[in-house]
Amino acid sequence: MALKYSRQREVIKAFLYNTDKHPTADDVYVNIRKQYPNISLGTVYRNLTLLSDMGEIKRLRVGDGIDHFDADTSPHNHFICSECGCVIDLKMENIDYITEAASKNFGGQIVGHTTYFYGYCEDCCNELQAFVQQAN
Amino acid sequence: MALKYSRQREVIKAFLYNTDKHPTADDVYVNIRKQYPNISLGTVYRNLTLLSDMGEIKRLRVGDGIDHFDADTSPHNHFICSECGCVIDLKMENIDYITEAASKNFGGQIVGHTTYFYGYCEDCCNELQAFVQQAN
DNA sequence: GCAAAAGTAGTAATCATTACTGTTATTGTT
DNA sequence: AACAATAACAGTAATGATTACTACTTTTGC
Q1: From the list A61, A82, A92, which residue is nearest B101 (CB)?
Q2: How far is CA A1 from CA A4, A53, A56, B93, in A?
Q3: Burial letters for A17-35: b for 16+ Cβ neighbours within 10 Å, e otherwise?
Q4: At A1, is the pLDDT very low, low, confident or very high (cuts 50, 70, 90)?
Q5: Exposure pattern of B41-65 as b/e (b: 16+ CB <10 Å)?
Q6: Which of A136, B13, B40, B84 is buried deepest, with most CB atoms within 10 A?
Q7: A32, A39 in Cβ contact below 8 A?
Q8: Kind and range of the H or E element at B111?
Q9: Which tens digit of pLDDT belongs to each residue from B58-101?
Q10: Taking CB atoms and an 8 Å cutoff, what residues of chain A touch B104?
Q11: 3-class SS string, chain A
């Protein structure tokens, strides 16, 4: 029941805190194995679930069928590139007021929302533009 | 290449059009098997993918790791009950203007968004209230 | 230093989904 | 109506992310 220290969990946490990407369990596993070749994929999954249950990290279901994880638990929204699949933090105003709009004409209770924006990231926009120019 | 008629596809489409629920592939499979015991799960998956690629239905990734499907392709938002997992259509004003808020300070191009509201559905709210009253 | 309990590595199992394969149904053409 | 081309199917095997299990290792309070 009581939580005990584990080096593996610390390493996983440190890895997440030191990236602005939004890695999957396998991303975490592959990267940490460079330094700790013995770590088990099950350990990575268990600790990611544990950390997100404790609220220290956030689990993102971005729609590609694979869970991503984010050490930044402050309220913010995400963008997912339809081309390369990358996940990017958005610096935008708070839009939680949309829950009020949703609460109208609804019998139950709305607690919150998850919003993902999609489109083309800056890199993919540039590549696409280069491709079009080359064609001319 | 050309699309051919298939009874199975028609039945799948009809089932989806006659429910206000948002069934999973397995829901569709189980229900249609009552009438067509020979239908294959693979056929259900293939046709659901085909229909959603053609834009006749919409694939919903509601965050439970299982794809749900909706025959209503008109723009509307969904609510997912944190208690029972049900998916409900929301009758609410259009909130697509949030993409403008997201586009500010963003280098790429934002095409759209997927927003899911969560909380407790009417039925679960009532059950919860009954439970609380019973405790007093 | 020791015992209780939490955590781990490694592997097996699960579950949704997709791919494959040999057969069946549809369709445009005689 | 019969025919050939090909889309679609049923049934099954394979895939990929995730979870469960088990015997061993760490941590921790005394």
Answers
A1: A92
A2: 9, 14, 18, 46
A3: eeeeebbbbebbbeebeee
A4: low
A5: eebbebbbeebbeeeebbebbbbee
A6: B13
A7: yes
A8: strand B109-120
A9: 999 998 889 999 999 999 999 999 989 999 999 999 999 999 99
A10: 92-93
A11: CCCCCCHHHHHHHHHHHCCCCCCEHHHHHHHHHHHCCCCCHHHHHHHHHHHHHCCCCEEEECCCCCEEEECCCCCCEEEEECCCCCEEEECCCCCCCHHHHHHCCCCCEEEEEEEEEEEECHHHHHHHHHHHHHHC
Closest-approach nucleotide to residue A41, Cα vs C1': C9
The DSSP symbol for B24 reads B
A41 CB and strand D closer than 7 A: yes
3-state secondary structure of B83: coil
Q: Which two tokens stand for residue B102?
A: 């997201």
- Min Cα distance B35 → chain A (Å) is 31
- List, in sequence order, every residue forming a beta bridge with A79; answer none if it has no partner: A88, A117
Phi, psi of B46 (to 5 degrees): -60, -45
Q: Measuring CA to CA, which residue among B7, B43, B8, B4 is closest to residue B25?
A: B43
Report d(CA A45, CA B88) in Å as an integer. 31
Residues A77, A97: contact at Cβ < 8 Å?
no
Please state, in angstroms and rounded to a whole number, the distance separating the CA atoms of residues A47 and A10: 9
Q: Report which DSSP code applies to B105.
A: T
Assess contact for A68 and A24: CB atoms under 8 A. yes
Residue A97 sits at φ, ψ, to 5 deg, of -65, -15
Separation of A8 CA and C6 C1' (Å): 13
For residues B44-68, average pLDDT: 94
